[in-house]
Amino acid sequence: MVKGKRTESHRDRKLQRRHLIYYLRVFERDSGRLIGHLVDLTAEGMMLISETALATDKVYALRMALPGEVFDHEQFDFTARSVWCRPDVNPKFFDIGLTLLNVEARDITCIEDLMQHYGFND
What we know:
Blueprint: E1 18-19, E2 25-28, E3 34-41, E4 45-50, E5 59-65, E6 75-87, E7 94-101, H1 105-118
Antiparallel strand pairs: 1-3, 2-3, 2-5, 3-4, 4-7, 5-6, 6-7
């Protein structure tokens, strides 16, 4: 099992994370391996839930499958560094914190659209 330190508290975040009502699938871009499902996100990072632990402090090339009813493209490619990985409340899963890298304006637009269409109003 891979464990990482949680380097920031909820109060230390610059942007409030938005919990999603639709858990989008996130894949490793090169292998196509399912990494996990998106739980919440901001323009700076996201949390996934996964059946397998992910190594921390590693950069991953990822792809998120997007719902066709909202987006005119099927996927969102991005690069992220794993910040932490810890067991979920359900012992069959892991929670994974990722920081987005090299975020461009088009990426921000996609993230904002995801939050608007699939985010809880919390």
